[in-house]
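Lab notebook, bench 4. We co-purified these components, and the gel suggests they stay together. Before we commit to crystallization screens, I want a quick structural picture of the whole thing.
Request: model the full complex, all chains together.
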Amino acid sequence: MDYTFQFRDVWNSFDELLWGAWLTVQLSASAMALGLMVAIVCAVGKTAGPRPVQFLVNAYIEIIRNTPFLIQIFIIFFGLPVIGMRLSSNQAALLAMVVNVGAYATEIIRAGIESIHKGQIEAGLALGLKWGQVFRYIVLKPSLKTVYPALTSQFILLMLSSSIVSAISAEELASAANNLQSRTFRSFEIYIVVTGMYLVLSLLFSTVFTVINRLAFSYPDRR
Amino acid sequence: MIRHFTVNDLWFIVSALQWTLALSVIAFVGGGVFGLLVALARTSDNRWLRVASNGYIQLFQGTPLLMQLFLVFFGANVLGFNINPWIAAAIGLTFNASAFLGEIWRGCIQAVPRGQLEASSALGLKYVNMMRYVVLPQAFKIAVAPTVGFLVQLIKSTSLAAIIGFTELTRAGQIVNNATFRPFLVFGIVAGIYFILCWPLSALSGRLERAFVAASGR
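Here is the predicted assembly.
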């Protein structure tokens, strides 16, 4: 092995990588929030909606879960402009991430909703709660509490797979690394540092999720 | 020059499927062998083996597969090997699969009731025989459904080999799309092929899981 590691170029441009990491955090957090909303709507549609809605939601889930994320990105980024929807690469990346994580999270949340006993809902209505209140306090919150670990590990997977959007040059950490690489050619040094940064990011997200769990779901229950 | 999408293009895409399949099989077999070692290390009595295998799993599950592929690709050059994207993808996916399968199988091994281990050691079985005749056959039953589920994830992951420049299904689609610029048609076909590969496996995994739950009465 006659290779000399040179990290100087990486440290000199470390600001760029940090900025890329910040963009990855923003992109992932937005995709998680929007994807969660999509998933809640779809999960309700799948458990309580009429037949055609159930069929559509199922088709959405199966199509997304059985095709690669990269192909989904390509169809959104290259395909949508053909039918007149011109998206910037970052908008396309966000849309692809929301569509992707929405499908996985729908299945997770559906499992949570199905774990709620029917008697709970009847009890809520008998106590005079409105439908919206029953849904929010008796169905949604306890089911999110039940599936929280599965949901957050899916979110962390989403953050990691956000590196794939660098394939359409959306701006985030992996594409910051690619840009730096094409300027300095210190490929290995750059990618080892960036891989470490992703590792830190996934630890960071899992810490944040633990804190959110404490704040939002720390009420006592009898299960 | 943008040209029309012809049967030749379709054939080019379909024939690239063999590379996706080859990559999936290599990563699955290689990942299976190493994954079993990782799972055994993760469940062993030796503390250092447990710590090391846990670190290995955390490292691969906590970083993007794309970065792992880049590191193998450029790292081989650092070590003085000049490897092509095909070998880099096969090695990278094998490492990645071994970490994921190791973690899945760890759970399956630990799901075998503790009494089975105690009974077999009371019967005088040593570690190798205990694993081979008592623990692994029972863990295997538990592992089938999630392993098939992981295979779907692995097949989809092979698409990332396109980014480091290996011409499999996804890259073939990109090449055809660059020449014909029919993104919906081209990537629709590519997505359709992945779907035909993955959907039966997903359905099988789901069915196996329900059958297992029904059989074990849980």
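Chain A has a mean pLDDT of 93. Worth comparing against the SEC data before the next meeting. The CA atoms of residues 9 and 184 of chain A lie 7 Å apart.
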